[in-house]
Please model this.
Amino acid sequence: MRASEIRALFSVASRPEVVSLAGGMPYIGGLPLEEIGDMMRRLIVEHGERALQYGSGQGDETLREYITEVMALEGISAHPDDVVVTTGSQQALDLVTTIFINPGDVVVAEAPSYVGALGVFRSHEAEVVHTPMDADGLIPEDLESTLAALKAAGKRVKFLYTVPNFHNPGGVTLSLERRPQVLEICAKYGVLVLEDNPYGLLGFEGEPLPAMRSMSEEGVIYLGSFSKTFAPGFRVGWAVAPHAVREKLVLASEAAILCPSNASQMAIAAYLAHSDWRGQIKKFREQYRERRDSMLRALEEYMPYASWNVPDGGFYVWVKLPEGLDAKSMLPRAVTGRVAYVPGTAFYFDGQGSSHIRLSYCYPTPEAIREGVRRLAGVIDDELETVKIFGPSGRKPSGVVDFPSPDIA
Amino acid sequence: MRVVILAGGMSHERDVSVRSGRRIQEALRQRGVKTAVHDLDATVTDTLSNLDGAVVWPLLHGAAGEDGAVQALLELTGVPYVGTSSDAARVAWSKPIAKTLMRGEGVATPDSATLPQTLFRDVGAERVLDALAERFGFPLVVKPARGGSALGVSLVTERDELSRAMVHCFAYCDVALIEHALTGTEVAVSVVGTGAEARVLPIVEIVSNGPYDYDARYNAGRVEYFAPARLSESEADSVRQTALKIHASFGLRDYSRVDMMIEDGVPNVFDINIAPGMTETSLYPQAVTASGLDLGEMLERIATQALERGV
Model:
């Protein structure tokens, strides 16, 4: 994996003068810090000898019980013993890949897919094959033909990696009707489903859809996280897997880190026990809805020539650029224009995606979002002028995965 | 002595500058020099008016740092600082203007054409691109007229790639420099000192796997460096004389790096850097190390020179 020009250009995005619509950082400004601070103090004073000590490789039992309660909100019924706590769900993703993937094995992923996952798959030398999505998520018919073609070509497909709710970067959600269809197709081809669900509770309308894990216990490995529903800083995520897989995950986790942070886990358990965490999630939803609305209004006003999905939850809008523009080529101009976005190429294994960009509305204020989109429109205008003069700027897809840093993944 | 390092900025090379700043801060710290690093932002003028005898080391790369803007600010504020003055920097920063001056001094530099995007817009692109292809042949190089770290630079090997190279270049800068592509030995020549006291540090030879682009420069693995460069004594001497000539005729101060390609025994200059990179993979620190000096010691000397020179 190589850091490239792209990653270096993002260094400018950290300056406050730049409106970064590239960030995947949740807005945690509204968290009750006094309350959490008191909890942390009590945790160390009253339970410090446990909190500051090594813990179980599988994770703190009390927290695992709470995790089953959190997952129940999305229809999952699991036993605390089915849960493996990890250092962020990113680590869970890495461990699952470690135990399943040999170099050359295939992972099927949505088109586009989460950049953090692509980085993991690439680092384990998997081959990633993308399969199309539309406004309702993965298209089952296309998934079937992808799997059939791979089988015919003698490829070993180990799992389907999916982010079914408020997809990063696509913004779409896998419809209820399609969920059992996808599960059936994967079962038919002997392919596990790796369900990555950080945003499921952050929808703006109605109730969360039932998780795929709630429809199939043996066919799905479920990844969950507190990063967006609470805060990322503690680095606590988890995997729920069938028994045989779970045993191996624990061994792999112990080999990697010995055990996840006791202090972090106990802090989150205390938060879940004593704080109105459901109310906080509601607050987050409202905050993100307001930001989404600001972004959509600004897009309509400043960039009517582009097209985009309307997400009804999560953090991202997936924007299609006007014909002839290349999202990567345009990035230096955006830096000059004091706005940042993530080029669509980051979200594909094979270099596609240059006609799209991902815009995040999670972090900046609604006013800053509006200003960011206004600046971006100016950048696009300037780039369009250049493209008008010279013709489309499309590059040959390079083999390098641009792997942005965690705060923009 | 106290050194206030200005690093970061908002150019495309911010990341390189941040890393350069950290490295020279660490090197100076190990010599017992008190240092502080400051970004070029709304609070910098406060810092500059409270220097208390410190010397400023502007290590911003790209525009603002190497085009004379930050130097002009320092001159206006009346503080001592390391490196070339604002007027001289402005000339060195603009590749086309620098090349004109070089040719006037009898220094070899690749044949080139300088074209702003507005010209293409006004007269149409295809015929101009054809004319460029006719004049330079392939491979040729397209680069921003003002820029660094190989950002926006394309080595174009066929006519079909030329439009894309222009679009890539114009995303960085509104004026393009198209140059004949040199082949030969690539060297980086680091100079320390000012005027008659300037001297050349060991020449660093660059052998890159693939183009010496941004990725090759700042990520270890793709480039092999030879310091001192594997040149004949007469080639090395010619290179040294060329660097000193540039350093003198452009009025460079304290330190600089001149990049050249030796083609058929002749050193051709293609870039002048008045705030050379100081990262772990940068060329100037390698030259210092090859000279047997500790980097911190060299940096301390340079800072002392600048402080003694005063305003």
The radius of gyration of chain A is 21 Å. Residues 277-302 of chain A form the longest helix (26 residues).
